[in-house]
Design goal:
heterodimer; A: 113 residues; mainly beta; four-stranded antiparallel β-sheet; 11 strands; globular; B: 113 residues; six-stranded mixed β-sheet; five-stranded antiparallel β-sheet; 60% strand
Chain lengths: 113, 113
């Protein structure tokens, strides 16, 4: 009954450090997404992967990279963390990227000092 | 450019009364709309959706109304319960961003016993 699992749940980084946020889903979904949530901004799409082997930029991709490792896993990497990347990061998945509800993990709370 | 807007940051309602959460959108190409509910320290969970070919969809205590001419949708919760206290996000699929969900900023609903 895991659904979408994100690790870690919390992380504190120093400016300039790198980090990879992990996401895995066990629902055999084709499409996966990374969002960030900031106060008063809703959720904004960083990157998404419509299917295994493909990735594409969302609304706010600068400073991030992604890897769709296999059908289950989609990771988000910060190469050189900046204070502006302090946020809550959510991973989501859906069977098909067209008009299907997305299922979300519980988020990673990332603070960059 | 905020294509999906929730203009009320918060809403307070008495238990047993109706809660009405509103959402406006600007992109006439949006064709599928969803409402998500989010508790603190958890990811958003899908609540209810509506296709642009309909003007109403009902699921138990939750009803979503869509007014395409006004580019407006609303979520009605009747009767409201204290457990409904959460942040509610509306979101939309469609337009030029195929497969990408666009979220509103969210509305904090508080239901008082």
């Amino acid at each position: 009954n895991a659904g979408v699992t994100q690790t870690p749940k919390f992380q504190v980084l120093k400016t300039g450090q790198s980090m990879t946020l992990q996401c895995a889903q066990d629902m055999n979904h084709n499409s996966m997404y990374w969002y960030r949530q900031d106060p008063g901004m809703g959720l904004r799409l960083i990157y998404y992967s419509a299917s295994e082997g493909t990735t594409d930029k969302g609304e706010v991709p600068n400073g991030y990279n992604v890897s769709r490792l296999n059908k289950r896993e989609f990771s988000l990497r910060l190469e050189s963390a900046a204070p502006s990347q302090t946020s809550v990061y959510f991973c989501a998945s859906t069977q098909d990227s067209y008009n299907q509800p997305q299922h979300f993990g519980d988020g990673t709370r990332l603070s960059i000092l | 450019d905020q294509q999906v807007k929730q203009n009320s940051p918060s809403l307070s309602v008495q238990e047993g009364r109706i809660s009405i959460l509103n959402c406006d959108y600007t992109n006439s190409m949006f064709d599928y709309f969803l409402w998500y509910k989010k508790y603190p320290a958890e990811g958003p969970t899908f609540l209810i959706s509506i296709s642009s070919i309909k003007d109403k969809n009902e699921d138990g205590r939750f009803t979503v109304f869509l007014n395409k001419s006004a580019k407006h949708l609303s979520l009605h919760i009747v009767p409201s319960q204290p457990g409904d206290s959460a942040v509610y996000f509306c979101a939309a699929y469609g337009g030029t961003s195929y497969g990408k969900l666009t979220f509103g900023q969210g509305t904090i609903l508080t239901v008082h016993p």
